[in-house]
């Protein structure tokens, strides 16, 4: 892979940890791989579970590794935002589990920050599990104006793989910094949907058990949020993707606030163990993170119902949030949640135009 100055939006270590993030002393965010050791794993000697936790907020997502010593095989749960960060993840996996085979990839969902480094593993994994609607979501991205520009830039970068072409840019292995700043195509190599398996089982909400983990790793999709959550390690570790954020404001891109509230309530019931969120530090169920999440969604529901159909603003939404949620990173993005909720309340069959909503959001005057 060509080295590119500035690729990956800096370094994880340079990102600040949100003040509102709840951190377990034994599992702080490290920009690296951490092995989780719940007591239940003592009874499952064959399985080791790791989480790759990053600093920062948006685009600094988490990943997971489930290793079967018996088979010397790995299930990877999500890749990271781009090839640079995903490459670091894979290097740490190789150091921790030298010689292990990467067999399975599970995508908790198909937002770009959880799939951007996919091209680094697409020729290694034998099977990929993802929620059924992921395919439509990503195809819609590539059919958008931004997706078309990304595809065009992809061809430009492909040309730069040719040494003769690179000489026109100064030669060597490094792409000029001016080009690296605009050429984001390597982050979004086309996704190989033909390698994705398990559509019918996952899309119907049934459990899919990976043979890799000897019936110990189960995958179950939550349909409304197009999210797959993974339970492993004797059921005492959950990788929940963007169903949960730690100290960072969550976003709903599908469904209503009612749906998000129902998911948070369901996940908070009768379960004990570690939780790896889509963004932010590892948590334990004893910290009641889903109860905190439920409180946020209940607050938004009250704001929406009290405000009615009048126009919201970024500043206005912040003023309506209680301090506990106002102090979350990117709290002003609550505005997007209200828009998506209104969209699906009025037309349940509709799909949110993510790029359109982001453009609308950024057009509001900055705080």
From TrEMBL:
All residue ranges annotated as the Metallo-beta-lactamase domain in the record: 57-260
Taxonomic path: Eukaryota, Viridiplantae, Chlorophyta, Chloropicophyceae, Chloropicales
UniProt-listed Pfam families: Lactamase_B (PF00753)
Name under which the protein is recorded: Beta-lactamase domain-containing protein
Organism listed in the record: Chloropicon primus
């Amino acid at each position: 892979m060509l080295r590119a100055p500035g690729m990956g939006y800096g370094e994880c270590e340079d990102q600040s940890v949100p003040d509102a993030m709840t951190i377990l002393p034994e599992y702080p965010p490290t920009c690296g791989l951490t092995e989780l050791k719940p007591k239940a794993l003592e009874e499952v000697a064959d399985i080791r579970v790791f989480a790759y936790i990053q600093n920062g907020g948006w685009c600094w997502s988490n990943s997971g590794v489930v290793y079967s010593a018996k088979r010397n095989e790995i299930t990877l749960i999500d890749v990271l935002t781009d090839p640079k960060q995903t490459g670091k993840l894979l290097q740490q996996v190789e150091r921790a589990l030298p010689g292990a085979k990467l067999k399975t990839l599970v995508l908790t969902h198909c937002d770009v920050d959880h799939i951007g480094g996919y091209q680094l593993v697409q020729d290694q994994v034998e099977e990929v599990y993802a929620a059924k609607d992921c395919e439509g979501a990503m195809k819609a991205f590539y059919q958008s104006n931004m997706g078309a520009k990304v595809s065009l830039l992809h061809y430009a970068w492909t040309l730069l793989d040719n040494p003769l072409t690179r000489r026109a840019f100064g030669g060597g292995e490094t792409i000029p910094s001016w080009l690296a700043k605009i050429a984001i195509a390597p982050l979004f190599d086309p996704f190989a949907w033909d390698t994705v398996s398990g559509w019918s089982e996952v899309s119907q909400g049934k459990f899919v058990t990976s043979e890799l983990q000897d019936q110990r790793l189960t995958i179950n999709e939550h349909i409304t949020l197009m999210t797959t959550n993974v339970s492993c390690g004797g059921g005492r570790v959950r990788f929940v993707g963007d169903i949960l954020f730690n100290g960072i404001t969550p976003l709903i891109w599908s469904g209503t606030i009612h749906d998000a509230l129902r998911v948070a309530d369901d996940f908070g019931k009768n379960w004990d163990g570690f939780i790896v969120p889509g963004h932010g530090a590892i948590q334990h169920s004893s910290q009641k993170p889903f109860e905190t999440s439920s409180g946020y969604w209940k607050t938004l529901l009250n704001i929406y119902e009290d405000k009615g159909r009048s126009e919201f603003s970024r500043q206005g939404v912040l003023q309506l949030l209680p301090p506990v949620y106002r102090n979350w990173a990117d709290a002003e993005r609550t505005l997007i949640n209200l828009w998506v909720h209104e969209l699906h309340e009025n037309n349940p069959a509709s799909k949110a135009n993510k790029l359109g909503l982001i453009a609308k959001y950024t057009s509001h005057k900055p705080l």
